[in-house]
Specification:
This protein has about 290 residues and is of the alpha/beta class. The protein is built from 8 helices and 8 strands, in the order E-H-E-H-E-H-E-H-E-H-E-H-H-E-E-H.
Length: about 290
């Protein structure tokens, strides 16, 4: 992979699992890393670990709760005050309720959808201007092959009984739809948007609330795939000259995969839903 010296990268959800390994690997390539996380203390610990493991100049830690639109907007304002360039945005922060019950975010949106989908949408929207000024620049959305149960008329499980893994699978289908809608809007801009799946990795924070017997079963099924292995494709998409200018694609292990969630009408419907939800919260805050 190519050197990332002189390149600035934002990574959300970088304090464990795949996000942490993406940060480690990009730091090793010389990138200037911005760790965007809810828990700043944990972020500082990870920053120190990254410096120790890679010998890189310490990553910067900035606070943001991906489930809170106010927090996302405040982070974006703070980032734009400090920096005038952004080469890569990696949307990775995600949650899974596991055995915990359904709960809403501070904005009144089902928490999985708020974090995993609306969070991706709003952060990208808030940083698009600085990405554009830095073009060519890249957006990488961490999605999953574990994607299903998509119901664009019931995204927040108001009609269906809430099941955490269905909510998570739906959110990951939505991440792909959003990527394709975004890529269409970025055509000819010098910005690219791609999605990737890290594969099944049970050592990530996503399974912290899952039943232990489920984690054990999934671990056997995954064949012991590590976060470092899962991070590789995101790092490749962020750094390699081989994918310069490539957009609107879905990858696993550096290979393009077909995506069953490609439908312009569905993509635009989801985009409009996210747009409405962030505008509602923005108006309420104002």
């Amino acid at each position: 992979m190519n050197s990332m010296k002189g390149k600035r990268v934002i990574i959300t959800g970088p304090t464990s699992g795949v996000g942490k390994e993406i940060a480690v690997q990009l730091a090793a390539l010389g990138a200037e890393i911005i760790l965007v996380c809810r828990d700043v203390e944990k972020g500082n610990q990870i920053a120190a670990e990254i410096t120790q493991r890679t010998g890189s100049i310490g990553p910067v830690v900035m606070k943001m709760d991906a489930s809170s639109q106010k927090s996302i907007r405040e982070f974006a304002v703070e980032f734009r005050k400090k920096y005038h360039r952004l080469d890569v945005l990696i949307n990775n922060a995600a949650g899974n309720r596991g055995t915990l019950p359904k709960v809403d975010s501070v904005d009144g949106i089902e928490l999985t959808f708020a974090t995993n989908v609306v969070g991706y949408y709003l952060l990208t929207h808030e940083l698009r201007d600085v990405l554009q000024k830095s073009a060519p620049a890249r957006i990488v959305n961490v999605a999953s092959t574990y994607a299903s149960d998509l119901d664009l008329d019931d995204l927040q499980f108001e009609r269906r009984p809430f099941e955490s893994f269905k909510a998570y699978a739906q959110s990951k289908a939505c991440d792909r739809l959003l990527t394709w809608a975004l890529a269409r809007r970025l055509e000819g801009s010098g910005l690219t948007a791609n999605a990737m799946t890290p594969g099944l990795i049970t050592e990530t924070g996503l399974y912290r609330n899952a039943a232990p017997e489920l984690v054990s079963r999934l671990s056997q099924y995954s064949g012991g795939r590590t976060s470092a292995q899962g991070a590789d494709t995101a790092v490749w998409l962020a750094s390699d000259s081989e994918v310069e200018g490539l957009s609107n694609k879905f990858f696993e292990d550096r290979k393009e995969l077909p995506c069953e969630f490609r439908n312009k009408k569905s993509e635009e419907k989801l985009w409009s839903i996210c747009e409405r939800l962030v505008n509602q919260a923005g108006s309420a805050a104002g």
